[in-house]
Structures are given as structure tokens and as C-alpha cells.
Design brief:
This protein has 13 helices and 19 strands. By secondary structure, the chain is an alpha/beta fold. It has a single domain (2-170, 267-374), classed as 3-Layer(bba) Sandwich (FAD/NAD(P)-binding domain), CATH 3.50.50.60. A hairpin with a 2-residue loop joins strand 15 and strand 16. 44% of the residues are buried.
Amino acid sequence: MKYTIIGAGIGGLTTALAFEKKGIEYEIFEKAPKLTDVGAGIWLAPNALQVFEYLYVLNDIKSAGNSINQITIGKADLSPLSDTHQDSIQKKFGYSTIAIHRAELQKVLARKIPHEKLHFDKGFKSFEEIINSKIKITFEDNATIETDYLIGADGINSKVRNQLFPNSTIRYSGQTCWRGVADIDLPTTYEHKAFELWGNQIRFGISKIAQNKVYWFAVALAEQNQKDDATTIQDKLVDMYTEFHPLVTEIITATPINKILRNDINDLKPLKKWHKNNCCLIGDAGHATTPNMGQGGGQAIEDAYYLSNLIEKNPNENIFELFQQKRQAKVNTIVKQSWTTGQLAHWKYGTGFRNFLLKNMPKKLLEKKMLEMYHIEQY
């Protein structure tokens, strides 16, 4: 049985690697002509790292990124509201969280995939089911292939999903996000810490991802689909965050203007089904979440792990329904909780009460929730 994966993002590449390990026949197609240094950073929590350890790429990822041993939600002045030390997580799993540039992560994964199975400059156009349960896929250059199973890993704006479930709904959170990578090194005290600072309806996140490289994100309420003037965006952000700790201004001004990215924060209204017949969605294509839990990439990576193991155990069956049963409850919980956290962070009124709740959240409860989120079944 042959599987065709559409999209060479984190979910698609991890699925290809998992299939490679299990000896599952596959090819992967990506619309971009090559992997480039686009994007900014990503935090990889222990659930993702367990999968990468299983796929023998964890050491490469460690070398390309930076370990995070403490995650802090704080006030604008860097004073903590909620500190999550990773000691118990480190003790249980052998690692905590790794911050890394998305492009570096993609390169690490792509290098492990045989060249003949990874195809660039192949944008997906459409699919049709043909005789003998085969699927015919047409690309934007009008080339076609036939396959047994189609896996849509092509992100929140998935063309595979749009054909499979045309009534699916992308939801705008009311928030937009600027991201960048600053050419700067953090003070030694902050080198292995990650921060998310909550101000008055705005947020700012900071973490080191490599030597002299700091990933940051800035979140604010905004109308949808707004554009920036590239010549003034840096000054605009400095003005927006002028009441934050001086480190924030230093990081923004150390970022090349052409490396400041803006994207509205969206998720996907949960779907009842991720699959139909021999087609299935994974990652953001099937269950995109807002980034507030740091689990968008992590859940795509988990998808790859469970999908490959279910196929191995049921080699001549369509396991997409079983895959959804295994994954949907956890994913939907994360999508809901992430959305709620994002709304909480931007309360217009009651910020004092919000800060009180964060500061007094029982540490044991937080740790219990983290361990539940990081749990991966052993096969």
C-alpha cells in the first residue's frame, strides 16, 4: 500500500520519517521549490521530543536548537506571574523543551528522507477517487499520480481539506502576531529560559534558539488581514512595547526589518471527522490550534507517530478511523484550552484578577496537566 503525503512542513516531514522507519511505502510532495530559511522559532515540548528520539533525530535537533529549563509567564517588567521549572519533566523524560528555528528543524528532518521520495515544486491541485479504491492526484503543473492513500499535511489553509470538507471553518482569534529572530545573545541568566510577558492587552515572548539568535513574538488585538509598512514596522513595535522591560526594545531593534513577519492568529473550528474514504488530514490541516499552548507542531508530530504505528499493526487496512479515535479527544482539548488561554491573556478588564489567578495556580496541578499533555503511548 502506498501513501502520498501533501506538504513538507513539520507534520509532513515527520510522517515521512516515521514511515521510513516502519518500511511503509510513501512519497511526499511540497509546493515550494526548496526548503528556505522562512519562519521564525518553535518550542518543542517533551511529547514532540519523545517522537524525535524514537525517530533517531533528537541529537541533531538538540545540536541545532537551545534547551529551555524554565518557562515563565510574567508581567511586562519581566517579573514572574507563573514559573514552570522543568526539573521534574527533565527527570521523567531526560529532556525538557527545545527552542529551535523552524527552518533548521525542517532541514534536520528533510536530510533524513531519501531524495527520491521528497519532491519539491509540486503544488497540490486536486484529487479524485478512481477504480479499485485508488486516488488520482493532480498537481498545479497538471502532472498526475495514482496512490492508495492520501494524507493532507498542507497546513491550516489546506487544499486537501478544502476539497475533502469544503464547509470547514478557519476562526480568527481577534489577535495578530509579529515574529522575528534577533541577531543578539541573551544575558546568561536568561539563556535557558523562555518568557511570555503579559501587558495591557499585548504580549511578548522571548527565547534563545541558537548562538546569537533570539526568537521573539509580539501579540496584539487587531482587525483581520492588516498589512504593515516595512519601513516603519520596527519603530511601531518599539512604540507598542515601550512600557515593557528594556530587553524587549533591544531585541526588536536587533532584528533585520525584512525578517519581521506578521500573521493573524487563527485556528480551525474542530472537525467531526478528519478523514473520508482513503483520505486523511493531519496536523494543522485537520486540527489547527492557536499557538498559546506551544502545541501546534507537537500535535502534528504526535500524529506522525500514531499514524505510522497504526499502519504497521494493520498493514492491509484503512486505519484512518482508528487514528482519529486515538487522537481526537486530546487534540480537541488542546485546541479549546489554547483558544481560552489566548483570550484570557488579552482581557481588557480584570488584569489584576487575571494575574492573581496565574500567580496562585497550584504548581502540582500545572505539573499534572503538563505530564498529561506530554504523554505518548509506547508501541
